[in-house]
Amino acid sequence: MRFKTMTAILLALALVAAACGDDDAADGDGGDTGSCEVADLNLVTLDTLTVATGEPAFPPWVSGPDGANFDDPESGTGFEAALVYALAAEMGFTDDQVTWIRSGFDEVIAPGPKDFDFNLQQYSITAAREEVVDFSDPYYTTAQALVAFPDSAVASATSLADLKDAKLGAQIGTTSLDFIEDVIAPTSDAAVYDTNVDAKTALDVGQVDGLVMDLPTAYYVTAVEIEGSVIVAEFETASAAPDEYGLLFADGNSLVGCVNAALSTLRDSGALAALEDEWLVSAGGLVSISG
Amino acid sequence: MDSTPIEEVERRGPQALWPRRSPQAREEGTRGALIAAGSTVAVFGFILWVVLTSEAWPKVQRQFFSWFHFKESFPDVASGFWLDIKMFAVAEVLILVIALAVAMIRALRGPAFLPLRIIVVTYIDLIRGIPILLLILLMGFGIPSLALPGVPRSPLFWGVAALVISYSAYTAEVYRAGIESVHESQRMSARSIGLTQGQALRQVIVPQAIRNVIPALLNGFVSLQKDVALVFVLGVREGLREADIYNARTFNYTSYIAAAVLFLLVSVPVARFTDWYTERDRRRKQAMSS
Question: Which residues have CB under 8 Å from B7's CB, separation 6+?
Answer without folding.
Answer: none
